[in-house]
User: Which sequence fits this backbone?
């Protein structure tokens, strides 16, 4: 199995290695599993906490970052919005690490 099978070329900007993006996604998914313990013994609630983190850090924060960068795209055609999306994913990872620092 190659990285081309997991991440198609249309989803990845040409300047970023696919392995780096895949590592970012895997790290976010694994770090989000730490929210399972906040289910307080209820398995369904723990799974919902994990799913909430996945949606927030893999979809919402990157999507809003790409949305905010859209005026740049209209101004400069060479701007790649996918780069802004993955930048938002990295920012989400930083937010998650800051949040985990204070969770006890």
Assistant:
């Amino acid at each position: 199995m190659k990285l081309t099978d997991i991440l198609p070329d249309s989803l990845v900007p040409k300047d970023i290695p696919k392995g780096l993006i895949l590592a970012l996604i895997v790290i976010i998914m694994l770090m989000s599993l730490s929210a399972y313990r906040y289910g307080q013994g209820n398995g369904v609630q723990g799974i919902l906490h994990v799913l909430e983190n996945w949606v927030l850090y893999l979809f919402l924060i990157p999507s809003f970052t790409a949305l905010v960068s859209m005026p740049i795209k209209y101004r400069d055609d060479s701007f790649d919005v996918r780069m802004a999306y993955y930048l938002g994913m990295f920012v989400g990872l930083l937010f998650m690490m800051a949040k985990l620092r204070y969770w006890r």
